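Ticket #4471: complex job returned nothing on first submit. Input attached below:
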Amino acid sequence: MSASLYCKNYPVPAVNKKEALRFAFCAQADAEVELLFDSCMREMAPCLSCKVCYAEFPVNLKGNLIYLGFTCVESADLAKNLAGCERIVLFAATVGAGVDRLIAKYSRVSPAKAHMLQALGSERVESLCDVFCEEIAKNAAEHGFSVRPRFSPGYGDLELALQTQIFQTLDIKRNLGVSLNESLLMFPSKSVTAIVGLKKI
Amino acid sequence: MNISEFLKENIVILDGGMGTLLQKAGLAPGEEPERWNITHPDVVENLQRAYFDAGSNVVSANTFGANTLKFAPEELEDIVKSALEIAKRARESSCGKQEKFVALDIGPTGKLLKPYGDFEFEDAVSVFAKTVKLGEKYGADLILIETMNDSYETKAALLAAKENSSLPVFVSNAYGEDGKLMTGASPAAMVALAEGMGASAVGANCSLGPRALRGVVEELLSCASVPVILKPNAGLPKSDGVNTFYDVSAEDFANEVARDVCDGVRVVGGCCGTTPEYIAALAEKIKNIAPVPVTEKNITCVSSYTHAVSFREDPVLIGERINPTGKKRFKQALCENDIDYILGEGISQEEKGAHILDVNVGLPEIDEKEMMCCVVRELQAVTDLPLQIDTADPAAMEAALRIYNGKAMINSVNGKEESMRAVFPLVKKYGGVVVALTLDERGIPETAEQRIEIAEKILSTAKEYGIDKKDIVFDTLAMTISADNKAALATLRALAYIKNTLGCHTSLGVSNISFGLPVREAVNSTFFALALENGLSAAIMNPYSVDMMKTYHTFRALHGLDENCAEYIDFAQGLPTQTAQSTVSAPSKSADSGKTALQDAIVKGLREKAGALTKQMLETVPALDIVNSEIIPALDIVGKGFEAKTVYLPQLLISAEAAKAAFEEIKAFVASSDGQMSKKCDFVIATVRGDVHDIGKNIVKLLLENYGFNVTDLGKDVPAEEIVKAVELLHAPLVGLSALMTTTVPAMEETIKLLRVRAPWCKVIVGGAVLTKEYADRIGADKYAAEALDTVRYAESVYNQANG
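Support reply: We reran it on our side without changes. The output follows.
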């Protein structure tokens, strides 16, 4: 069941401002929101520490039962996502605990800023995942594979409990410094685990 | 020879990795390695003997994860007992000729402490305490606290070790690539904390290879006055698909670590990926290197959970604003348990350039100990500045020092026997830099000479308690010159003597000097300049005072402490100009929108302008009129826009904060005229037990306050009992509960059940990401609020029904 496990540090990805504002429930920004966004960007920039660890596994589907190489789960939604895939990349990404410290700082004194930091932090880790997944896609294409959209525990009917196996498999606590609490929430909170299906073209 | 004596003259060699070797020997993934002390004692013993044979002076018993969170008490005792027996058997049967010791090994509990996690500091202390007691009982020679990536958990473990044993304690942390702990602490901050509490050695282990840890080691060596530990991994983990291996060979590892030993590291070993082979190579490599003597660095410093602040040439500013003396608005905040106001004062002072925050919450009508702990706990979650615990009550002082995440500044001790007897043991136990006032049983001496005498007495008494003079900062007491025109001179002369002749750092509460005089700022800032020139190291001052900040920045520029005057120029450019101050025009209708200037400022979310306009209006308009005809209509404009989806959540929040700034001016005005603001009714709000998310709750609170509700915020992770008690006490007609995680919805349901029994009059509103209308109905809530404004609307309807 062992697979090669890799860890990589990443430079801070480019900001997808539209996405960040969407996370903040803001379809259109006025001057004050712009100012708030800029100040959040400035304060967050030095706090980011982007890391990814990942491993590749074979995958087998028997109806909704999915043999993921490191464990077996039942999920109609993931089965649909992985239909026709031969392999998966399992990965975990984090932008570090600095973001949480910043959010904690403002949560009591400026809900507006805390809210925007929260949104920006989510965008940061999602953008990191985008960068990583593009790399995977490029690499996969060279070997004749296409990639499926990433799929995380908690999406659709894929149970969050899968986090426990993912954490063990990728040794995430050690490799990324991310821990999982009893409620299966991650800290640093701006962290993502996901599965990317690889399908033969 | 015991380990402390051995450490004085020698380089101490620790052992190497354990976990990976046990896995090779058959430990299954997920199996607790500590159970092997019972099931496979021979395997553990052979491994440990191999380390002693390879040259280790200290082998850690297999107790890294041995704590009551993982094992039942009886099993824990068996595990620790056999762990130490095994290690001692390995020692006796080893062929190694070196001095050999066994350590009780203590790793992280695996649970994250508050504020990031849900584990209480004192719970962590008791978990560690149980392991420590067993370690001492079964004959460990020392305690090794290692791989900690959180300063707060490190403190919990160290406190437990010191309170429950007399063994020497080595403290080692896991630093990331950024050279900091996961929760943010720098090596200098960890040295301050660990040394302050009496650790025998401090250092770094795990997470990285020796080369990547070099920066951390350099910083440790530059500030530690105790031996430095280095116990790195064999590089980074790699996997070939079958086995995990590390990328630094035994030979390279030994070469790298030997370099650090030449630089002054005194305790060395290996962590993940290292084996007896690595330790043997290391022992061979360093056998002829003479240990670099450990020197006293004489650094006066305090620390927060992120960084250390040292007293050197550069003056240290201690913000004085968290103090009720002479501040009616602050007193009101304390009486109303309005912690947010206090936190706001903390953050504003940080933004104005304070380096340390003084925390004084003493008021006759409140429980100072409880309030002090609450404020320290909350402040250290929002600001990374070190705190100065300012209280005359030793019980409050001890409680605050205990939970403080770092090495605190302590205000104060003085030359009275009683004061020194109460304060010095606390400084010794918890660490800290204490401000010593040069007064004693006879009061404040008039002359400089008498103050110096008291300072010398304080120093010699401190020494008896084992407190070094670097941890004492003298305050030669600024007294007002309006009562005695020689007062400033006596203060300054004593100051200069203590700094230059006794070689101690100094601090002054600068603003006392001008009491009773007009234009106090002028006197304060000039006195501040004189004191700095006479050797003042730190000032307790008001960072909002432009005059004081001018003096500070000018002094630094004039003393060559500000390269290219860059910081001075930066400061000068940020100063408000005369014209900018007058741009706040009188309240008037703005031409285009039909809104008044204040309404416009709130709608646009201009926080400072809204505050300034309100302040101006208060000179002529009754407070209540401003609320009813300016602020509330402005909030309604924004609220309606939000409901019509032309205004989005961030804009709503920015406007709400601008309105809050307006309210803050009104509160300050009403407090200063000893008035009372009428409030609609009580509203108790909390995030339920088990849930640590509070942004949503804070948003609702902000809006409710703006609409005139008297909000009691119980915070996050609040047990049902506490919520019900608060509702009963206030007879609150409304309570708002927030839960963000599916796992905490049951806690919400439990709270509602208890409320129905004991506070049947109370309407319950629930909200949070995981809730739906159906779920809210099922758990018996009166109202499901999908949006923050839903809560406000519902609360208003309940209030209006009850009040006609």
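Chain A has a mean pLDDT of 92. Closing as resolved unless it happens again.
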